[in-house]
Amino acid sequence: MQSIKNYIEENKPRFLEELFALLRFPSVSADPAYKNDVLATADFVAQKLRDAGAQNVEVCPTSGYPIVYGEKIINNNLPTVLVYGHYDVQPADPLELWHTPPFEPTVRDGKIYARGACDDKGQFYMHVKAFEAMMHTDNLPCNIKFMIEGEEEVGSDNLGKFVAANKERLAADVVLISDTSMISMETPSLETGLRGLSYMEVEVTGPNRDLHSGVYGGAVANPATILCQMIASLHDENNHITIPGFYDGVVELTEEERKDLNSAPFDLEEYKKDLEIEEVWGENGYSTLERTGTRPTLEVNGIWGGYTGAGAKTVLPSKAFAKISMRLVPGQDWEKISELFTEHFVSIAPKSVKVKVTKHHGGAAYVTPTDSPAFQAAYQAIEESFGKAPVPTRGGGSIPIVALFEEELGIKTVLMGFGLDSDNLHSPNEKYDIFNYYKGIETIPLFFKHFAELENK
Amino acid sequence: MQSIKNYIEENKPRFLEELFALLRFPSVSADPAYKNDVLATADFVAQKLRDAGAQNVEVCPTSGYPIVYGEKIINNNLPTVLVYGHYDVQPADPLELWHTPPFEPTVRDGKIYARGACDDKGQFYMHVKAFEAMMHTDNLPCNIKFMIEGEEEVGSDNLGKFVAANKERLAADVVLISDTSMISMETPSLETGLRGLSYMEVEVTGPNRDLHSGVYGGAVANPATILCQMIASLHDENNHITIPGFYDGVVELTEEERKDLNSAPFDLEEYKKDLEIEEVWGENGYSTLERTGTRPTLEVNGIWGGYTGAGAKTVLPSKAFAKISMRLVPGQDWEKISELFTEHFVSIAPKSVKVKVTKHHGGAAYVTPTDSPAFQAAYQAIEESFGKAPVPTRGGGSIPIVALFEEELGIKTVLMGFGLDSDNLHSPNEKYDIFNYYKGIETIPLFFKHFAELENK
């Protein structure tokens, strides 16, 4: 492994430059305005895979954004690792809150600031560079396949079809993903599960046009007021979600699982201080780690209606809207939840308004078996690289396609992320520590080494 | 009066052209981007007053937008009418809902479509043209003063100071305003009261930055969710407003007043059909006419927070905002109500968020004495011009400065409006019927005639 270490050491400056080039693409998949940038990003990724030594590299078209595929098959008898990542990023707005331009990566005290720095460009590109290091030093111990998509931030609508249509090509022994976070670099951790997601949009219509709030106010239902009342009713006084059937099938943790989970290092005061909040919030009877890691939630991601400009406009709006998403846990079927939400939301609407509910996207929750060779390999790789055994954690985020891989390809996923919760994913000033970037590149080859050994036992 | 009639008849096309020119100024007082247009509108109005025969015309500077003053004193022993109006208009957005450009007046089946067509350019300009007709035919029966301001749509912040500082100059026997509506041209009506207003803006802050709704969702208070819960709590199950002390001092109508009010021609089915709503909404125990005319209300005029762009963004927003205004009735002090709202809104905020409340503007409610010579003069003028006695009505809108005139100048106001509730005030496609515009110009001189007679009795 020394030769790999040396190669990485010698090439660190270039590895960073290449990441910067990747981060300069504004590959925002949610906004059609960036279409050409997203497409250009796919071509860039494909070229970098070729440069690193991948074969059969292809930018595979879909009805949405393309999926970049590449592979290196050294021996069919050796195990195969399928690396998944995504080259698309979240929208950067609100732009005015960025200290430096989101698509001009800037380094401040050892951190790379840019949209996508951590989620997921900085993390998936570690694999491309680790692969390059293994190739150039003749140290690739198993076969490797790359599948880097461009629609993760908008629900991976076309990945499912692609996977189903390419089972042979994608055949592997494990899926390896770096798109999650660790507790810290001093306390490395390893995700054992992810939450599912159901993302909805609602539209409440009152009168057929904006009205003068003096002439009509008090006599015609105000859709903004009604929307607020409907959203307020979705949580009860214990912050339980009130949608009938929502919790059906939710797997409750055993006392021991709860004990393990809560034994993870976590400083509530630090947490509140970092967010500048006086009190945390959430479902009664659960700790903060349980609330984010093991419980389903419902969040308003956006709300708008009426006059939102400068000054005052005495209008009774015709329409009000909200984007509402639910995080799901094992035992919840995201499509069923989407239906339950729709039925319930329509059912609680008073006759004085009309309601329209639209489904954006979603995915199932996932739990990794910690006794698998792949999980053990990741565990050992982190232990060796950090000099400290990782803490098993349950992440609150979602990578909807993880469940899909198991369904379609029949293989498990290992979530070996190197980000931090404080990396401002989906927020202004997203960052990724240069230290974490390099640490990931150094740790990945160790995973391959241990995985090859354990699989061949 | 025949000579006035003839003069108006001969000049109708020009009167319409001049109104179009006035409507082409985008005098949006709420949005600083239109500053120069608003100022240009003031100059235009001043010039038209001079052309009509007014003296001592002045564009009076204030710390905001100027007030246009002009007068014609024919004899100090004659009564004096102070005409008030405003040359500023509401913002035109949402622009995409206009069928023709808001600042390019367009006539469709006898109606002038433009922002400000009715509120208030079309209505105050009737007075300028009626004045011109009386002047050119030597039929002005009393003294007249004009005070046309440019900040009515943003709270008339500087009018109060101006009036207080110009009591001599503004001395009059009555204030005459055309900035309200009639039931219809077949059923002319006359306003006997207006509601007061208190316009607030609230800001709810959760975490100090937008967060990933997966990583933090369910564990940190979402300001959009909390704002919805707070707004929802402002009405109880009977749609009574829950702010402690809100109804203190509200004057309840007598059974007879209620009977009179509800005897006004009103077709609930037509009302619902026009707005395309299945059910009306409002305070239990009151009719629609009572709800808008005699009861205080609370409306969300705008709400926003989080991601409102295309597609999906899984963000837990840092902030959520709302513009909330209350319509007030006689017995409610608008400044006290603003304080009560602020205290209450802050008091119901959970510790997990921070709340900021800002006061936009407001004004007191007003009721006209129906036995005054001025009200009687308006009543007779309408009866003569429409061939039908007007129905007394209570309007839901607010002209905060009406109460101020009484306070500062010690004179009553007559609200002789010629608009219609269906004129889309503050909405896209605001309109004003050419018929109403001409009808107003014909009716105003009759008011002057009757007022001069009644005052001199």
Automatic annotation (TrEMBL), chains A, B:
Residues 193-351 form the Peptidase M20 dimerisation domain. CDD domains: M20_dipept_like. GO terms for biological process: proteolysis. InterPro entries: Cyt/Met_Dipeptidase, Peptidase_M20, Peptidase_M20_dimer. This is Peptidase M20. The keyword Glycoprotein does not apply. GO terms for molecular function: metal ion binding; peptidase activity. The keyword Hydrolase applies. It comes from Pseudopedobacter saltans (strain ATCC 51119 / DSM 12145 / JCM 21818 / CCUG 39354 / LMG 10337 / NBRC 100064 / NCIMB 13643) (Pedobacter saltans). Keywords: Hydrolase, Metal-binding, Protease. It comes from the Bacteria. It holds the Pfam family M20_dimer.
